[in-house]
Amino acid sequence: MTMEKLTQYIALFGGLLSAVLLFLQTLGIRVTWFTNETIDAFVNSLLAAVPFLLVVYGIYKNTYLLTKKAREQEKTLKSEGLK
Questions:
Q1: Which of 23, 38, 55, 67 has the highest Cβ tally under 10 A?
Q2: How many CB atoms within 10 Å of residue 76?
Q3: pTM (predicted TM-score)
Q4: In angstroms, rounded to a whole number, what is the distance separating the alpha carbons of residues 16 and 21?
């Protein structure tokens, strides 16, 4: 999944939340904490958090320091001249 697709999914989720808000408002249900501003803030936090988590996961998967198996793999790569 590309970053562009992930951004589209987050925007889709924000649009869905906005649709739910409008639906509830047409029914006369008012939830004080569920507003357009809170939806925008939530979507913005997702847009910041998801790429951060992907980077952290990439760093975790590409380092040879965290697990015993990874350290053994690094030794094997060095011994075969691949690293």
A1: 38
A2: 11
A3: 0.61
A4: 9
